[in-house]
Amino acid sequence: MNTEPKIIGFLCNWCSYRGADGAGMARLKYPPNVKIIRVPCSGRISPELVLRTFREGADGVMVLGCHIGDCHYSTGNHRTAKRMPVLKKLLEYSGIEPQRLYVNWVSAAEGEKFANIIHEFTEQIRALPPFRETMESRTPIEIKPAEKEAVWTSA
Amino acid sequence: MDKRINELGKTIEKILPEVDGVIGLKSGPSGIVAPHLFAKERPEELAFLAVWPKEPVPDTLKIILRAHPDAKLAIVCRGCEERGIVEMFKHAQLKLDNVMLIGLQCEQSEAEFCRCAKPYTVHAKLTVGQPIQGVADPLTNKIAAMNLEERREFWKQEFEHCIKCYGCRNICPQCFCNVCALEDEKWVQTGRLPMPNPSMYHLIRAMHMTAKCVACRECEETCPAGIPMAVQFRLIARDVKEMFNYETGAVMDQKPPQLLVLEEGEYQRTGLPH
User: What is the Cα–Cα distance from A72 to A130, expressed in whole angstroms?
Assistant: First the structure.
């Protein structure tokens, strides 16, 4: 039961990846659950990509980018800041824990912040059941709310 | 219903000489209602004018404007269809310079059928019928009140019925991309049933409807499995209003938030860390 959580971290090339590099260079310890994928910009992470990562079996997804205003492409991370909150809400409305998706900003100098974030997020995901398991669990509940029936028969 | 048809017929008759055509609904010989282009050369067709059931007329307008860019047209549109046309205009799908909007206000029974919050037109200069108040949406409120596990089960059981006919995407006035992510094998495994859980198809579509869905509910009506997918779009629309202060179809000059950079104070409302 107590399997290690699988976490995929999408890190922007210019800030967060350098920050992770810095954490490694400073010999900071952090949990090995996060598999890092380097991307040109956090704005490159489309919601489809996050959803597919979940579908492939990730328990948590991290999207780290430059601080707002520091983007290498000037407004790339504005897209992240607009998309990801909406995606979190959508996950919530679809019955997936929104805390499985984590968005934060890490600059190239913030190695320590990076290590802390990984600690924090891994603990957060460890507290949740594995993603696949939650999707397969089947506790029959009453569906077909009366409102829906009424709507479809009134036509 | 009849009263509005008479009034609408008179309005169309009045403006027919000024325009090349008026897009409205016409009931055919077998009683099937479909979008139709009324022209001044055939005024007798106005006898078959219809208003219900509603059809996706924004798409009809787009198709006609693509073929005849300089045509001067008028279109009979309800509140939702007007919003659809305005959003299409914002996304550069059609030009409204030569288009006259004739607003058709919905009746109480129609608004209740659609669970519509805004069954009235805003931009149309000519209107037919009396505007009424919007009605509450019981299903959306019910799902908003559920906890995570209940929602998960609800959507799982709903999406299990999906036969992937892509009807919701085809009928949507806001689904106009030339290359559709839903046909991409990378994201959605095409032709495979039942849907995996979580359903990539529906989540991606819901995400793409952010700040675009005009709550016309055509997708739900066309769905052969009766999946109430517009509920997700409506819940997200509430958040978009809160975060980005954007309502689809409300203001003609306001650009959709996904086309703009962050504005002052928007970041604080998204709930992301500082």
Answer: 35
